[in-house]
Amino acid sequence: MIRAELQDGVHTIKQPKDEVTPEQVKLMRTQDIKYVEMKRVAEAKKIERLKSELHLLDAEGKKPNKHVFFFDTKKEVQEFDIATHLDTVPELVDRVYNRPTIATLEKETLKGATDPAHLKVKLAQQRKNQYDLLKQRIEREKAMFVIAQKIQTRKDLLDKTHKVKVKKETTNSPAIYKFKFQRKR
User: What letter would DSSP give residue 101?
Assistant: First the structure.
């Protein structure tokens, strides 16, 4: 009956207030900072991995791959046909990444894009999607950095030292405070 009361004729139970000590609040803020920092570092690693993958996609000055064939006589060089040597169809000779043999083509249908124009469009779309993903991850990482700074600022405000607000908080940066110097012993 101690925690019960009547409000507008309805019997309600008072909820006890959770007492949280300042040390517990500091600890919770520290845990929050560590979690946000962990997520930010994971995002930064994903950004680095994406950058390393996308690094070679737009390299137009990239040295072309070479495929060297060795012959004994000049007659063999003149009679050389790359399609027969690689055992594939002449239309697929330029494909470096997936060049099926004639036997494979007889067994199965050709998978993937065979038209060069369609292939370029598809690759351009994939590249655009990857760069959009990279942009989103970079923005997310910046936002997490700002959140970590704001949490750290709020944690620092819990100290009993004298402080003066220098700059207001914005969406891109935390509030800036100037603290009174206190010598640590």
Answer: -
Give the separation between CA 39 and CA 47, rounded to whole angstroms: 12
Write down the pLDDT at residue 17: 67
Tens digit of each residue's pLDDT (9 = 90 or more) over 111-154: 665 666 777 788 788 888 989 999 999 999 998 888 888 888 88
90 DSSP 8-state letter: G
- Distances 108 to 96, 98, 142 between C-alpha atoms, Å: 19, 14, 49
Question: Tokens 């036997």 label which residue?
Answer: 103
- Alpha helices by DSSP H, listed for 55-79, are 74-79
Tokens at 22, concatenated: 């300042």
Q: Is the dihedral of CA 93, 94, 96, 97 positive or negative?
A: negative
Q: Name beta bridge partners: 151.
A: none
Torsions phi, psi for 150 (to 5 deg): -65, -40
